[in-house]
Design brief:
InterPro entries: Lactonase_7-beta_prop, WD40/YVTN_repeat-like_dom_sf. It is built from 2 helices and 34 strands. Helices cover about 5% and strands about 45% of the residues. The chain has a single domain, classed as Methylamine Dehydrogenase, Chain H (7 Propeller). The structure holds 2-acetamido-2-deoxy-beta-D-glucopyranose (6 copies).
Length: about 450
C-alpha cells in the first residue's frame, strides 16, 4: 500500500510535469500570484534562489504603499553555487550585487555562479515583475561570478569573478542580443582562490562604478591579520580598463571590505566591514605609500556588531542602511560632508510623560532589530510615490522585510513577506543558505 501510494504520487508528479510540458526546473516562468492587471504596481524587487539545480529570479510587485506581493519566479538558465564555509550558512556568495536592476537601461542582470555565466533580462516598464531574457546567458570569462555593477546609463555591465579564475570583466548591453563582451576589460585580481571559493575571509565581495563613472572598483576581504583591499581601475572613454589596479587597504582597524556604497557628491565610499562596522574610503586622496586609505578615510566601529556586510543609501533620508547577518539588526548611518561617519542618533524622551524636561531626554542610536536568527543580508532602497522604503532579504527567515523611511532615525518595519511557502507550493526549491541579492526597479 505504501509503495503503491508512493508510485501513484510519483506518477502524479510526472503527469503534472508532462501537462506543464517540461520538468518544473526547466519552465521559464512560474507564477506565484494571479492578477488581472498591473494597475497599482509601482515597481518590483528582485532576488535569486541561487539553487545549484537551477537558479531562478524571484520578482515581487511593489505597491503604492511600498509593500510587496510575490509575483513570479523566472528561470535564469544557469546554476547557483555556495562558497566553502564552516559552518555553511546564508550568504552563499559572500557578496552584495548578485542581482542588479537598471532603471536607465530597463534591464535586470543576474549571475549564475555555478555556470560561470551572466543572464540579462529586459524589464517591462509598465509591469516590472514581467522580465524577459535577452539573448542567451554569456560567459563571465572567469569562475564563480558573484557580483555585478551596471553603469548609470545602463549601457555597461561589469562582473566580479571570485573563484580560481578571479577578477573583473565588462560587457556592453545590446537590447536585442544581450550582453556583449568588451575588449580590454578582463582584468585579474590574482587571488589564490578555489572554485567555489572559500570564505568569507579572503573572498571577493562587491563591484561598483565610482559616482562619476570613471573608475571600476572591486572589494576583497582580508584574512586577518592581513587586511583586505579595494581594487580601483580607471575606465577609458572607449570602456577599456587600465592595465593595473590601485590597491587600497582600509584604515588600520578595518580588515574585511565588503559592500561598497557611493557617498553622493564626495568621491568617497562607505564600505561595510564585518571586522569593525564600516570603513570610509576617501578616493580623492592618494593612498599612503604602504597602500592604506588616506585623506579623510576612517574605520568606524558599530558596538555589538557581529558581521556588518550589506549597505544601501536613501536619497530622501540622506543616510545609509547597513545590515548585519549575525545580529539581524539594521543600522542607520550618516556620513557628513567632512566624511565623518556615525550611527544616526535620535533624542527620545526617557519618560514619555515628561517630554519637556531636557534632563529626561536620552540619545538612542538608530538600530532596528529584525529578529535573532533572521540573517539579514542584501538590501536596497526604492522611492515610491515620493517615499523611501528599505527592502531587506532576511535569508534565514526566508522573508523580505520592508521598512518605511518616513524621516531620519524613524524607520518602521511595515511588512514581513514570507517567500518560502509560495515558492515551495509552486514546486520550486528554496534554501535559506542559498538565496542572495536584492535590487529594485521603480516605474518612472
Ligand atoms: C594557494 O593556496 C593554497 C591553499 O591554501 C596553498 O597551498 C598554496 O601554497 C597557495 N599558493 C600560493 C602561490 O600562495
Ligand atoms: C581604448 O583605448 C585604449 C587607450 O586609450 C587603447 O589602448 C585601446 O586599444 C582602445 N580599445 C578599443 C577597443 O578601441
Ligand atoms: C602593471 O603591472 C605590471 C606588473 O607589476 C608592471 O610590469 C607594469 O609596468 C604595470 N603597468 C602599468 C601601466 O603600470
Ligand atoms: C600604513 O601607514 C599608516 C600610516 O601612514 C599606518 O597607520 C598603517 O598602520 C600602515 N599600514 C600597514 C599595513 O602597515
Ligand atoms: C537576541 O540575542 C541577543 C544576544 O544573544 C540577546 O541579548 C537578545 O535578548 C536576543 N533577543 C531576542 C528578542 O531574543
Ligand atoms: C538560522 O536559523 C536556525 C534555526 O532556525 C538557527 O539555528 C541558526 O542559528 C540561524 N542562522 C543564522 C545565521 O542566523
Amino acid at each position: 500500500m505504501k509503495s503503491f501510494t508512493a508510485t501513484t504520487l510519483a506518477f502524479l508528479g510526472y503527469s503534472l510535469a508532462l501537462v506543464a510540458g517540461l520538468p518544473l526546473q526547466d519552465r521559464t516562468t512560474v507564477h506565484l500570484r494571479s492578477r488581472d492587471s498591473s494597475s497599482g504596481v509601482q515597481g518590483a524587487a528582485y532576488f535569486m534562489t541561487n539553487e545549484p539545480t537551477g537558479n531562478f529570479v524571484i520578482a515581487a510587485d511593489i505597491g503604492s504603499d511600498g509593500t510587496l506581493t510575490l509575483n513570479r519566479a523566472v528561470v535564469a538558465s544557469g546554476l547557483g553555487s555556495h562558497g566553502v564555509s564552516n559552518p555553511i550558512g546564508p550568504d552563499a556568495l559572500f557578496a552584495q550585487g548578485s542581482v542588479k536592476a537598471s532603471a536607465a537601461g530597463g534591464i535586470l542582470a543576474v549571475v549564475n555562479p555555478g555556470s560561470n555565466t551572466i543572464s540579462a533580462f529586459s524589464i517591462n516598464p509598465s509591469d516590472p515583475s514581467a522580465i524577459t531574457m535577452i539573448g542567451e546567458p554569456v560567459s563571465s570569462e572567469g569562475e564563480f561570478p558573484m557580483s555585478l555593477a551596471v553603469s548609470d546609463s545602463g549601457n555597461m555591465v561589469c562582473v566580479l569573478n571570485g573563484g580560481a579564475v578571479n577578477g573583473v570583466n565588462c560587457f556592453s548591453v545590446n537590447k536585442q542580443s544581450g550582453l556583449v563582451s568588451m575588449p580590454n576589460s578582463f582584468r585579474s585580481l590574482e587571488l589564490n582562490q578555489t572554485t567555489p571559493p572559500s570564505g568569507p575571509p579572503g573572498s571577493t565581495s562587491h563591484i561598483v562604478f565610482s559616482e562619476d563613472g570613471s573608475q571600476l572598483i572591486a572589494s576583497v576581504k582580508g584574512i586577518p591579520p592581513t587586511p583586505g583591499f579595494i581594487a580601483v581601475w580607471d575606465i577609458d572613454s572607449n570602456g577599456s580598463l587600465s592595465p593595473n589596479f590601485t590597491s587600497i587597504a582600509p584604515q588600520p582597524t578595518g580588515a574585511l571590505p565588503f559592500s561598497m556604497t557611493v557617498v553622493p557628491g564626495e568621491n568617497a565610499l562607505l564600505v561595510t566591514d564585518p571586522g569593525v562596522g564600516f570603513d570610509i574610503f576617501d578616493l580623492s586622496a592618494q593612498p599612503d605609500t604602504n597602500g592604506t586609505a588616506a585623506g579623510k578615510s576612517s574605520a568606524v566601529p558599530i558596538d555589538g556588531q557581529s558581521a556588518t556586510c550589506w549597505s544601501s543609501f536613501s536619497n530622501k533620508m540622506g543616510n545609509f542602511y547597513l545590515t548585519d547577518i549575525g545580529t539581524g539588526i539594521v543600522t542607520e548611518v550618516n556620513v557628513d560632508n567632512n566624511l565623518k561617519g556615525s550611527i544616526v542618533q535620535v533624542w527620545a524622551p526617557a519618560i514619555p510623560q515628561r517630554t519637556t524636561e531636557l534632563a529626561q531626554l536620552t540619545a538612542a542610536l538608530q538600530q532596528y532589530p529584525q529578529g535573532n536568527g533572521t540573517a539579514t543580508i542584501d538590501n536596497d532602497v526604492a522611492t515610491v510615490n515620493g517615499n523611501d522604503f528599505l527592502y531587506v532579504l532576511a535569508a534565514n527567515a526566508t522573508s523580505v522585510h520592508v521598512l518605511s523611511l518616513p524621516a531620519p532615525g524613524q524607520a518602521q518595519l511595515i511588512q514581513t513577506l514570507d517567500f518560502a511557502g509560495p515558492i515551495q507550493a509552486a514546486g520550486l526549491t528554496i534554501n535559506p543558505n542559498n538565496v542572495q541579492g536584492m535590487t529594485v526597479f521603480v516605474t518612472a
